[in-house]
Amino acid sequence: MHHLFESNLPRVDYFPFSKYTTPGFRLAEFLLETASLSSQVRVSNMDYTGGPTLFPLHRCKTIHLVRHGQGIHNVEGDKNYKAYLSPEYFDAYLTTLGWQQVDNLRKHVHASGLFKRIELVVTSPLLRTMQTAAGVFGGGGYKDRMDILPLMVANTGYSDRSAISSLDCPPIIAHELCREHLGVHPCDSRRSISEYQCLFPAIDLSLIESDEDTLWKANVRETKEEVMARGIKFLNWLLTRKEKEIAVVSHNGLLFHTVNAFGTDCHPFVKKEICKRFANCELRSMVIVDRSMIGSDSSITKYPGKIPSAANLPSEAADEKILENDDNLNDK
């Protein structure tokens, strides 16, 4: 298989999972269906190999990739790219339409049963992504009490929204590796962590090393290759987590350049499923495979057999043993 950054980075595989979100679905069923993409062909000077792909279940994780809802920067930026250079869009917040998109995605993850399966949510530490993470995956309305912190306080980012509870929802943790394309665009710069802690009290910000934004530079923008490498590094970090089903709330640039590192060994239609750009509040589900044992998960379903132990030589193994004995006699 071809893998981007193969010489420097561990091998990771991606599989589209969007049509497998019904309750009760099992990863093994998905992998078996993937095997139906058989044969080996050449299309547009690109080789891909179909046929079965088999991996141990405990080496796989399901990740649900989500782009944030519409931000104030998206409205003008979609019309004129130079609008992204405007300082007024610093750490852009969600629009009213963006919140409607968040509400609809929240309904979907609950109706599909996905909400109950997600063990962890990882979000980019920007205002629009944390608003989206809290709105989609948070608890219900927050009732003031001393022992429970809200995920998001009322009216965060001019939202005119009530506070969101941290009860009955998966933990949400922020990580700088899944931030948007860094540099030049003020909308992709973040506030101080101390300010975010006041706005999102129950989001875990402990992985952020610097209170101020030291990653964003006003006159230097990451290359696409650097964004892709950072995205791969983020996926490798996900593989070290104990959780098996994780939602990621991020940005179009980071998600798009990351997924485009994959799919060159797939059918062109599968690659297209993996590598297209993300719409606002789109959720795309994937299976990520730990081919290089980055994580340390052990199987919870594997059973060793022979309990109680007894003599049990399979017929095929017996045949091989007879042949081996015959060969030994011929050698004498």
UniProtKB/TrEMBL annotation:
Cited Pfam families: His_Phos_1
Skewed-composition ranges (Basic and acidic residues): 318-332
Region of interest called Disordered, as start-end residue ranges on this chain: 305-332
Domain of life of the native organism: Eukaryota
Segments crossing the lipid bilayer: none
UniProt xrefs under InterPro entries: His_Pase_superF_clade-1, His_PPase_superfam, PGM_Phosphatase
GO molecular function: phosphatase activity
GO cellular component, one term: cytoplasm
Function: May play a role in carbohydrates metabolism.
Entry's family note: Belongs to the phosphoglycerate mutase family.
Protein name: Probable phosphatase SPAC5H10.03 isoform X1
